[in-house]
Amino acid sequence: MSEPLLELRDLQKHYPTRHGLLRRAGAPVKAVDGISLSVQHGEVLGLVGESGCGKSTTGKTILKLTEPTGGSIRFMGEDITRWSRQRMLPLRRQMQIIFQDPNGSLNPRHSIGSILSAPFEIHGIARGAELAERVAALLRMVGLPPEAAQRHPHEFSGGQRQRIGIARALALRPRLIVADEPVSALDVSIQAQIINLLQRLRAELGLTYVFISHNLGVISQICDRVAVMYRGRVVELAPREALFFDARHPYTRMLLAAVPQPVPDAPRRTVSTEAWTAGESALLREVAPGHFVADHDSPG
Amino acid sequence: MSLLADAVARAAPAQAAGAPVLRVEGLGVRIRTGRHALRALDDVGFSLRRAETLGLVGESGSGKTLTALALMRLVETSAIEIDRGQVALDGVDLLGLPERAMEDLRGRRISMIFQEPMTALNPVISIGRQIEEPLRRHLGTGRRAARDAAVALLDQVGIRDAARIARCHPHELSGGMRQRVTIAIAIACRPDVLVADEPTTALDVTVQAQILGLLRDLQAEMGMAMLLITHDLGVVAETAHRVAVMYAGRVVETAPVGALFRRPRHPYTRGLLRSIPRIARERPAALAEIPGTVPGLLALPEGCAFAARCELATAHCVAERPALERIGPEQAVACWRHQHV
C-alpha cells in the first residue's frame, strides 16, 4: 500500500487544569489521549462519538489549529508535528476545515465574492478578471448562482451558507478536508443536499475527508471507514459495513442500539447502559482484516 | 420497559378512544413586524387522547414550537397575537381564560418541558425545592409532605440516591440528569397533558434513548397525554402513536405512526422520509433530496406552500391552497395530489 495521506501516531492533546485558591495544577483533561490512525488518499474516514469524546479536538489537532501535546502527525510524507505557523502556511492550501456553523466563520460585513477571493489573494494566485472567474467557478461548483458573489452572508439560508463554507474550503484545491459536524445544524431535507454535494465533490476532485459527526446515519452514508471514539481514545476502527453490522466493542454496540430508527413499528426499546471496563492501554487489537478493537472487559 | 408495559403503551390509546383530552382547532398566530403582519400559524388543528403521544414534526420555521407555546398561552406579546381558533382542555377553551386562571392550569393540568433543561431550571435553588414548588402552589401540599414527594418524584424519574440529589443545584448534574429533573417538575401534579419540545435534542444518543424510555414509562403509569415536538423522525417512530407533520405554519398531514412511515400521503412527508440517511448494508449512491428551501413567512405563496419544491405540483397547487382533508378514520392530508403520492 502506498504511503497514507495522513498518519497519526499516539496523538495527544492534554489541557492543564488549575484548582483552588493556590491554582495548584490538577490532573490534565485528556481530550485526545493516544490516537493512532492513518487516512488513505481519496478515502472518507468517519470519527464518531458522543459529546466530549474528543472527536472535534482530534480534527483541530490534525490541522494544527491547536498544537498537540504528544505523539506525531505525518501529512503528505512529512512529520509536521513541530512545524511553526510560518512553516505551515504553504501547507494550509492542502488541508482545510468545514465547520458545523458556517455563520461563525463567514464575516457578515464581507460580500460572498470577497470571502471567496481571500484565499486566492493571500496566496497570490489570481487577481482581476481571473479572480472573478475563479470565484464564479467556485460558486457554480457548489450549486450557487454567480450573482451570489455580490450578496452578503445574512441573505442566505443555512444550507446555502454551508455551500459557501464548502466553496471557501475548496478554493485552493486542498487534498484533505476535515469536516466537523458539517450537516448537524441543518434540517433533514437540506442535510441530504449537502451530503450529496460533499460526495459529488469528493469524486470529482479526488478529495480525502476526515468526517466528524455524532449522527450514525450520516456516517453510514458517507464514510468508507469509521473510528468510534470514547473519552479521548479510539475504541473501535473498522470498514463501514463491519462497524455497523459486526461491531465488537460494547460501547459501539450500545451506541448503535441507541439510534432511533425512522421505520414503521420501530421497537420501543430500553437501552441498557452496560458497564464495561476500558483497558489501560490505548492499543487496538486486529480482530478481522482492517477491524480493530480496544481492550476491554466485557459485561459477559 | 418490559414487554407487558410495552404492549400496554401501544394499546392504551385504542382502549381510551373516548373524547380527546386536548383539542386544538383552527389555531392561528399573527406576528407584527414593523410594517408587515406575518401569518406564523394558520388553521392548526389536532387532538390528543389520554395516554396517547402525538408527534408534532417539522423542520425549523414550520411552527411546531410556536404551536406549543400558543396552546400553553406563553407567546402573547404586543407583537405576537393568537388571533384565531380554540384550544380545548377537557372542553374548556384555554384561549378564553383570564391569565390568572391559565396560571392555575399551567404546571397542574398541562405542563411543558424544553430542549435545554438548564434554561428551565433556576440555578440558585436546590433541585428539591424546585420540584416542591408546583406541589405547594397548586396542590397546597405542606412543606414536609412536599419534601418527601420531591424525593419520591426524583426516584420515579430514575434518579438514584434521590434524597442526596434533591439537595444539589442544577450545575452539579449532567444534561441527562437535569432533563430528568425538569420531567419530575412537569409531572409533579400529575398533569393531563405533557408538552415536550425537543426534549432530547440537546442530549447524546444513549441518554436520549433513556429519556424517551422514561417518558414512555411515565405515560404508561400515569395515563397522561403527550405532545412530542421533534425534528427527528426516528424519535417519532419509536415514541409517538400518531403524528402531525407541519410545513410553513400549517399541518399538512396527520396519521397513525405506522401508516405514516409505511405510506406517507403528503409529498413533503414522503420527501422527508426519503432524505434521511439510514444505517443499512446497501447505501444509495446519493440521498433523495427535496430541492429548494422552506419559504419565508414574508413570502408565503397563494397556493400550497410546498408547491415550489414538489415534483407532483400542478397549476392548481400553485393557484389554490389545499385544506386538510380526511382520507381515512385517523388520517388527513392537505394535498390536491395525494392520490398520486
Structure description:
- The complex is a heterodimer of chains A (300) and B (341).
- Chain A is α/β, with parallel strands linked by helices and 300 residues long.
- Chain A has a single domain, classed as 3-Layer(aba) Sandwich (Rossmann fold).
- Chain A is built from 9 helices and 16 strands.
- Chain A has helices at 55-62, 85-88, 112-122, 128-141, 158-170, 188-205, 216-222, 240-245, 250-258; strands at 6-15, 18-19, 24-25, 29-39, 44-48, 70-75, 78-79, 95-98, 176-180, 208-213, 225-230, 233-239, 277-278, 284-288, 291-294, 296-297.
- The radius of gyration of chain A is 21 Å and the shape is globular.
- In chain A, 44% of the residues are buried.
- The mean pLDDT of chain A is 92.
- Chain B has 13 helices and 12 strands.
- In chain B, a hairpin with a 2-residue loop joins strand 9 (242-247) and strand 10 (250-256).
- Classes of the chains: A alpha/beta (300), B alpha/beta (341).
- At the A-B interface, helix 6, helix 7, helix 8 and helix 9 of A face helix 1, helix 9, helix 10, helix 11 and helix 12 of B.
Characterize the overall form of chain A. Answer: globular
User: Hey, roughly how much beta strand do the residues of chain A contain?
Assistant: 25-35%
Largest sheet of chain A: 8 strands, mixed
The third-level CATH topology of chain A is Rossmann fold
Number of strands of chain A: 16
Largest sheet strand order of chain B: 6-7-8-3-9-10-12-11
Number of helices of chain B: 13
Name the helix and strand elements of chain B from N-terminus to C-terminus, one letter apiece.
HEEEHEEHEHHHHHEHEHEEHHHEE
The radius of gyration over CA of chain B amounts to 21 Å
Strand order of the largest sheet of chain A: 8-9-10-5-11-12-15-14
Sheet/helix structural class of chain B: alpha/beta
Family (chain A): Belongs to the ABC transporter superfamily.
Subcellular location (chain A): Cell inner membrane
Protein name (chain A): Peptide/nickel transport system ATP-binding protein
Membrane topology (chain A): Peripheral membrane protein
